[in-house]
């Protein structure tokens, strides 16, 4: 079996500050849905192990040791106005969510996939996600449309493009936390 984690093959980022993660859409546990995420050294960074097949209600993002980082919970909006996803810090879901993410239903802006809304007093859009998740070509844009993170297809040896179950998550420095960028990947996977 080929390795899915990054290696020193020249595909790593030219910027030392950005984090290049390899996301594998597969759980480390048998018979589970989820994700396994490696850093540029090949070390496990994050994981998602969903024991319930097809369950899209609540998902837990964990670090390499199994400590909860974010709980993601789906909230249906009445009257067919779509879905809202709530992101809680850690495993706590009784507290107020840190962010909410809403799938874009704007037919005039077909590049936009979703909006990330801060759950502080302002309830303003913090990030906008554009691109195509099914093609693994997405950009997370922050203030002034500055690139905060992006999802790209991963290439193997000899320039062979791998399938959509292995891809890169590139996180820009001082723009977004790596764990929150991975939470956005999980949300996109649930939405699309």
UniProtKB/TrEMBL annotation:
Gene3D superfamilies: LURP1-related. Belongs to the LOR family. PANTHER family: PROTEIN LURP-ONE-RELATED 8, PTHR31087. This is Protein LURP-one-related 8. It comes from Hibiscus sabdariffa. The lineage of its organism: Eukaryota, Viridiplantae, Streptophyta, Embryophyta, Tracheophyta.
């Amino acid at each position: 079996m080929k390795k899915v984690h990054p290696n020193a093959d020249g595909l790593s980022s030219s910027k030392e500050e950005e984090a290049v993660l390899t996301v594998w859409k597969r759980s480390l546990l048998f018979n589970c849905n989820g994700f396994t995420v490696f850093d540029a050294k090949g070390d496990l960074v994050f994981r998602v192990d969903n024991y319930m097949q097809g369950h899209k209600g609540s998902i837990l993002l964990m670090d390499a040791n199994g400590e909860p980082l974010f709980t993601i919970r789906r909230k249906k909006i009445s009257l067919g106005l779509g879905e809202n996803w709530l992101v809680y810090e850690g495993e706590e879901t009784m507290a107020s969510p840190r962010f909410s993410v809403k799938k874009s239903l704007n037919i005039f802006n077909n590049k936009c996939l979703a909006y990330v809304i801060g759950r502080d007093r302002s309830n303003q859009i913090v990030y906008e996600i554009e691109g195509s998740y099914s093609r693994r070509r997405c950009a997370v844009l922050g203030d002034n449309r500055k690139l905060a993170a992006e999802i790209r297809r991963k290439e193997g040896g000899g320039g062979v493009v791998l399938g959509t179950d292995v891809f890169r998550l590139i996180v820009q420095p001082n723009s977004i936390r790596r764990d929150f960028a991975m939470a956005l990947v999980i949300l996109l996977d649930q939405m699309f």
